[in-house]
Hints:
By secondary structure, this protein is α+β, with helices and mostly antiparallel strands. The protein has helices spanning 2-20, 27-31, and strands at residues 49-50, 55-61, 64-69, 73-75, 84-86, 90-94. A hairpin with an 8-residue loop joins strand 4 (73-75) and strand 5 (84-86). The chain is globular.
Amino acid sequence: MNTLRRRIAALACAALVATTLPIGASAVEAAGEHLATLPTDNPANFTPNVLDGEVLSIWQVGDRVVIGGSFTQVANSTSQGGTVYDRTGVASFDAATGLVDENFAPDLDGDVE
């Protein structure tokens, strides 16, 4: 059952990416060349914090950033109020503000890679 839920989550993320990309564009073309370098340990002070586990995947889809991994909680940065959200393996936040998307809370039972 774990594998089925992971596949459903992956398909949902792929569908979200596919619906926001221009026709014929690849994910790399849409994301731009800036993906060739790794971010620093502290890329931005306003982004959410993963409170346990780790982030295994990051995707930007338009103005949203979707993270997947082995975590169960994320929190807005302390400068954004520090609100804690239960998110098992996947979360989304606004790329401009860093605020966790309160409405994006898929019910998964395992890690998202």
